[in-house]
Amino acid sequence: EFVAKIYRANVHVLFSPNITLYSFLQFDNNSETMGWQSRFHWIVEPGKEIMLVWNSIVTDPLERFAVADGALRFKAKYNVRF
From the CA atom positions of the chain, what is the Rg in Å? Predict the structure, then answer.
């Protein structure tokens, strides 16, 4: 018999209409791992955006907080209009 229990939490913080922080945590009982993603999003002006994204997987989060895999990425979006 297979029963998966998934728990998650979202936090969305609006510092201003152009600057936001979004965090997402998810835990499942089968793999006993927790996934975490945080995104810092800044709209410099319409069509120009900057994002800083953190992704990680935490193994055994109930015993010790050990990050098994983590990545920090910088993303930029620029629209060209003519």
Answer: 17
Alpha helices, DSSP H only, in 1-82?
none
**pLDDT per residue over 2-39, tens digit each?**
788 888 999 999 999 999 999 999 988 887 788 889 99
- Contact at 8 Å (CB) between 36 and 58? yes
Are 26 and 35 spatial neighbours (Cβ–Cβ below 8 Å)?
yes
Model-level pTM greater than 0.85?
A: no
What is the share, in percent, of the chain residues with pLDDT greater than 70?
91
| Tokens found for residue 54 | 């953190």
Give the β-pairing of 66-78 and 48-59: antiparallel
